[in-house]
Design goal:
The structure holds two protein chains of two kinds. Chain A contains nine helices and no strands. By secondary structure, chain A is mostly helical. The mean pLDDT of chain A is 92. By secondary structure, chain B is mostly helical. Chain B has one domain. The chains are: A mainly alpha, B mainly alpha.
Amino acid sequence: MRWTWFHRLASPPYLYALAARLTPWFAWPAALLILGGLYAGLVLAPPDYQQGEGFRIIYVHVPSAWMSLMVYVTMGVAAAVGLIWRMKIAHAVAASCAPIGASFTVVALVTGALYGKPMWGTWWEWDPRLTSELILLFLYLGFMGLRAGFDDTQRADRSGALLAIVGMVNVPIIHYSVIWWNSLHQAPSVMRFGKPAMPPAMLVPLLVLLLGFTLFFAAVLLVRVRAEILQRERATRWIGETLRA
Amino acid sequence: MSAFLDMGGYAAFVWPAYLVTLAVLVLNIIWARKSLARALQAARRRTAAAGEDS
């Protein structure tokens, strides 16, 4: 098996240049998909027969909740790669994920409260789904706080990675919480076995937004990783050469 | 138009949800670009200083 691509990715100058080149290829499709998806969700999708127009919150709530989990998995996997193969770049990726993931976890919680109030009659409930999502936010914040507590980048990387990896157990708990426990939160309507529980006119805008948010994450991550690389490689020569070029 | 803005009586929940989401999307762009700009500035300052030394 050829591992050269993996080794090249581990090279900071290579990844720095690659990230800069790739960013617009993710950013522009993300912008188009998100704007198109939001329009379709607000205007084109038919109202729900039970939740009326209020169900349109789903088009911002579900993509944010998806981001909160997907970014965490990315962070956990990157942290594990960094820890196992002692790959500095992987730690840079993990560190870059945290603020993005934390911000979308906040959006998932806030839009969830705005969804819960009219549908359940409460902003918040100590329900398994809601509580485990709140724990996810604390994991992100804990990861960032722990990293910030170290002056030495290597020690910050290792300690943060351990926390990120241990926190991965929360991901399946969040996903399955609505199935395992008797939750206020409705069961999954998209990511489940069999057919999604939505007609295409409602489902398509949601899928467009899920893809758009995912590409958005990639674009923002690439920008943040470049900043992380510059900071970590400050003592090396290639940076000066790159900046002068 | 006003029927659309009213969101079938759910306006007070739907619009804030969309607003918060859009705000965080925009903030993520701003924060990421700011951190890159700051890192670039620091790197330029260092390379300039290193240039003077040699």
